[in-house]
Automatic annotation (TrEMBL):
Signal peptide: none annotated. GO terms for molecular function: NAD(P)H dehydrogenase (quinone) activity. Keywords: Oxidoreductase. Residues 7-207 form the Flavodoxin-like domain. Its EC number is 1.6.5.2. Pfam families: FMN_red (PF03358). Belongs to the WrbA family. It is an enzyme of class 1 (oxidoreductase). This is NAD(P)H:quinone oxidoreductase.
Amino acid sequence: MSTPVNVAVIYYSSTGTIATIARAIAEDAERAGAQVRLRKAAELAPQAAIDSNPAWAANAEATASVPEVSPDDMVWADAVIFGTPTRYGNVTAQLKRFIDTLGGLWQSGQLADKVYSGFTASSTAHGGQESTLLALYNTIHHFGGILVAPGYTDPSKFVDGNPYGTSHVSGQGDIPVGDVTLTAARVQAERVVKFTRALKAGLAAES
């Protein structure tokens, strides 16, 4: 009997690119045998700003049924996959705000010894994808987490080219998520589930 694995996919998305990737990663993790929670970070922008951008407003409506993330989702998870668009080469304020609420869990050691990974999107190919994921991964080191990035562990990774995590170039919102990004999402989700299961089984065998 395989070891059960809980995966939380926690993301922030404004115009929908990251939300699309998050759903794909959640579905791929489920197909790999994990129990999955798909959760979004709470919006901080005023409604007027959202309404001023049709894509942003449409994504807010389309994802209205996705539960907002809470610290309990971090406790529940054996693995956490964070998703954020790049903001000047860093994570969004919305996701960072959630992470900043986790001090109590960090102090009590409840964020350590879990698997973590991340995905992102930007308007251009050099719009900060790598620096965003590296900034996110700096936080994982502070958690005492175990980073599982995709690397170049599958032939498809030489096509999308990002060893840090799934990423997508969205242009001005006019480049939809396609097969290259969805393949990267699958590879990353399967790798996270595989190594989380192995880690959890190994720790159980030692106890």
